[in-house]
Amino acid sequence: MFKAVWQAWGRIDLLCANAGIVDKSSVYIYNWRGKSVEDVPPEPDLSCTDIDYKGVIYGTILATHFMRHNKPKPGGQIVVNASIGAMFPHRSYPEYCGAKAAVVHFVRGVAPLLKSKEDIYINVVMPGAVETPIVPPEMIAAVSKDCLTPISTILAAHDRFIEDNTGMVGQALEGSADQLIFYEPVAYGNGYKSKRAVTVWEPLFRMMHGEDSQLDEAIP
C-alpha cells in the first residue's frame, strides 16, 4: 500500500493508523475448567495484538522510510488510533486493552526522536465507545446513546493533530461523546529516581539503533 501511494503521488505526508480488531480468544479459558492438569490449553489466537499493536509498529517504520524521501523537505505526520481502553481496561477485551495501551506508550516512546531526527510528528487518538462493525449492536444499546462517541468527534481529534502548528508530539487525545480530552503521562512515582531508570543511556541506544539519540537528557 505504501509503495502504491508513493508511485501514484511521489510522496507520503500522513499516515492514519486505524486498523483494529478485538480479542479473538478468551484469556480466562473458562471453557477449560474441569480439564486435567496435563491437558494444557491450546495456543491463544493473538490476532488482536498482531493487528492492533504490531501493525502500528510496522506502519510507523514504513511511514518513516517513505517520509524520509519527501521532497523538497523530508518529514510528515502520523496519527494512531488507540482506545480509551488503553487508559481504563475493559474486562471483556483484556488483550485489546493491552494492545491499545502498548500503542499509547509506543507513540510516547518514539515521538521525541521521530520529531528531532526525522521531522515526523506522531500522536495518538483514543476513541470512546463508537458504533462500528466490531462492536455488537446489543453492546452499543447497553452503553446508552449519551455515552456513544460519533465519528465526527474522532475526525475532530484527528484534525486537532493534523492541523496543529505548535509542534506537539507524543500526545494522547481522548474523543468521548462530543468532547476532546488530552491525557498527560503519569507522574514519576519516585521522582528523579524513577525517571533516571528510563532515561536514555547513549551507549546502549547506539548499540541498539546504530547512532546516538542526541537527546538533551541522554546519559553519555
Task: Provide structural commentary.
The structure is a single chain. With 220 residues, this protein is of the alpha/beta class. It folds into 2 domains: 2-25 and 41-186, Rossmann fold; 189-220, no CATH class. It is built from 7 helices and 5 strands; from the N terminus they run H-E-H-E-H-E-H-H-E-E-H-H. The chain has a 5-stranded mixed sheet, with helices on both faces. It is globular. The mean pLDDT is 96. Keywords: NADP, Oxidoreductase. GO terms for molecular function: oxidoreductase activity. Belongs to the short-chain dehydrogenases/reductases (SDR) family. InterPro entries: NAD(P)-bd_dom_sf (IPR036291), Sc_DH/Rdtase_CS (IPR020904), SDR_fam (IPR002347).
